[in-house]
Amino acid sequence: MKExxxxxxxxxxEKKVTSKLLNDFYRWGTPSATSxxxxxxxxxxxxxxxxxxxxxxxxxxxxxxxxxVMERVAGAMLELARTLAGVLAEDLxxxxxxxxxxxxxxxxxLRLNRYPRxxxxxxxxxxxxxxxxxxxxxxxxxxxxxxxxxxxxKWVAVKPNSDALIVNIxxxxxxxxxxxxxxxxxxxxxxxxxxxYSMAFFLCPSYDSTIGSCKQPSIxxxxxxxxxxxxxxxxxxxxxxxxxLPRFLIT
Length: 251
What we know:
By secondary structure, the chain is α+β, with helices and mostly antiparallel strands. Helices cover 28% and strands 21% of the residues. The strands form 2 sheets. A 6-stranded antiparallel β-sheet has the order 1-2-3-10-5-8. Strands 4-9-6-7 form a 4-stranded antiparallel β-sheet, with no helix packed on it. The longest helix is centred in the first third of the chain and has 31 residues, at 61-91.
């Protein structure tokens, strides 16, 4: 996957934008940014699992192979994520199998990331500080580093380990666990000398799934995944940033 990912991002920018490679799921930077602190120095292919295998008229033999590799990786990530989420749910006294029944190839995503070498400043974000809007995120990062997470009100660098995957709790799991598990705020810093690659898998339910809570009384109002995404999009348009779970707290 690492080899195919690098080949993919080495294509000319114009081809990545116009060739409908991987069904138009290419993203770059932050086109809506109005200042440097809103900009992410990165590019990505953010693909729903169910769409990876879909063919397009401009597909080549190399893109067919890329899709095959992505399908294998995504399938393994889905199985691992559902297992981990089930274990965490069982730890709270909830049947693990039932917890992930609405998480499948039609709802989950695989994201291939590239963070180009940034000649301007090491203080520019490769990816802005944020929390993930899902249940769980499984991340593989290369040896370059740059990922940081918030711990005890301080940013802590996550040292790369080629033999390990990183698992982040997402917003939905925090809400469902009634804040027993916390969604981790994280960011990626740009690198002046080296480019960085990573792969992220996002475990998500269907948009009409009610998140609810494993314990009562809940500190959050009931909401669906669709409600959550819509509120996040509205907040980003109005304020330039995600607000997330505080919007759904019971007051």
